[in-house]
Amino acid sequence: MRRPRAAAGVLLAVLLVLTGCSTQGQDATDVVSDQQARAYQREVSEKERLAKAEADLPSRPSGVVDVDGSTRGSLTTDEANRYEATGTSTAVNVANNGEDQAFQELCAGRVDLVDSARPISRAEWDACRSVGLDVVQFQIAAEAIVVAIKSETDVGGDCLTMDQVRDIYRAGSPVVNWGQVGLDDVPLRVGGPNQDNNAFGFFGRYVLDAPQPSLTNLRSDYSSFENDEGARRFVVGSKHDARVASRFVDMARRRSQAQQALTGARDELASANEELAAARAERAKGIRDKRSRADQAKDIARVDAAVERRRAARARVDRLHDRYRVWVDRVKRTEDARKLVATYRGHVAYFRFSYYELFEDQLRPFEITRPDGQRNCIFPSQSTITSGEYPLSRQLLITTTTRSLGRREVSDFLKHYLARAQDAAVAARLVPLPDQTVLVQRAWLTGDSSPLLVTPDDQADSPGSPTASEKPAR
Fold first, then answer.
1. Where are the domains of the chain?
2. What is the model's pLDDT at position 363?
3. Dihedral sign for Cα atoms in the order 301, 304, 308, 313
4. Per the database entry, which stretches of residues form a coiled coil (predicted)?
5. Are residues 139 and 437 in contact, defined by beta-carbon separation less than 8 angstroms?
6. Distance between CA atoms of 41 and 35, rounded to whole angstroms?
7. Which pLDDT belongs to residue 339?
8. pTM here?
9. Where does residue 1 rank: exposed (0-12), middle (13-18), buried (19+ CB within 10 A)?
10. Which of 17, 230, 259, 413 is the most buried (most CB within 10 A)?
11. Is the pLDDT at 382 greater than 80, yes or no?
12. What superfamily does domain 64-143+380-472 belong to in CATH?
């Protein structure tokens, strides 16, 4: 009789547990629903706040596009002038107040476009988002510098880190041998453009961290040149020296041939002298022996022939000696040229990528590692430069907001700008965008696809950082 009671007790306990679990599950569901409701309400409130903040921004004047930023090395001013010359009624005002102020103005709704060589920073992006502005970034072109030595020479490696490039060029640098940066024992000399070249300012700001680059930021033995050609000759030497040096083997062969010919001529002269001495001795003997007149005539003819032979041999020796001296001098010049060309082995300079492309058969570029501790050795190419992968590159950017993109004036100007971007980049000796990049960005303006919004992830906090990641507009 006790067993049924025990079983009933167990059943009651199970029912109580199940009932409690059911009640707890219902309470948990209610808690989740409350949390979701509160989160939704916060999202709605935040959207309302952002919408109000955006509505409170100053209105943009009709028929006007305001651009601010840095016009140094930019294409924007020229393209604004070309756009206005098309007969448009839109006025494009381009200011040059610097990138920092321009991004502040953009996020305050006072300008439409920022002309910059760096992406918007995280702090600047936060400022835009705090007033409800979504950020869109267009790339117009790219620029890069290439650090190069002479083609077909070797200093023990093809890859340098950003720190190594900086150490080689910076003021007070102790580096006078490639071995000091982990390469071969080769004397090092550095050169590059002077302050009038765009590459000088780019290199000073992005490599030497000098806001206003000058020669004082570079090592005291830095060889500066008025143009890229001078820097290239510093690295590869002159065409004349190279051409003369290239003749060394041929000149040495001809000198050897001339020397052999001269040796043969001298042997012939020695033989002619011996014959003349013998002929004269024979003639004297014939006189003593009172040979017949006919025999003495033969002795005299032999002497005359020996004299003529010696005269011809001596003349040939003199002629071949002069020729040999000519080849000796020519070999000396080619040897000197070869020594001079050899001294260029350790010379290094930097160039704009567009100039390097013209002489890539003469220049050997270094691959560069990004300043993140990884030795990834990125080669300079149109692809790695326009994408921002190559560390010594910068992207020419136009940053705007979806609010400004909604204005006909802004989208029309950007359509014009992108349509001419590649040709303008080539004319300005910049790196043009790939066709596909241009097509993708133009589609944002024509409405064929939604523009990509810059996100807070991987934002740049300093010049030279890669472009911020992006996501499609909602």
1. 64-143+380-472, 246-342
2. 95
3. positive
4. 255-323
5. yes
6. 10
7. 82
8. 0.70
9. exposed
10. 413
11. yes
12. Periplasmic binding protein-like II (3.40.190.10)
CB atoms within 10 A of CB 67: 26
Q: Which two tokens stand for residue 456?
A: 């807070």
Residue type at 381 in one-letter notation: S
Does residue 162 have a pLDDT over 80?
yes
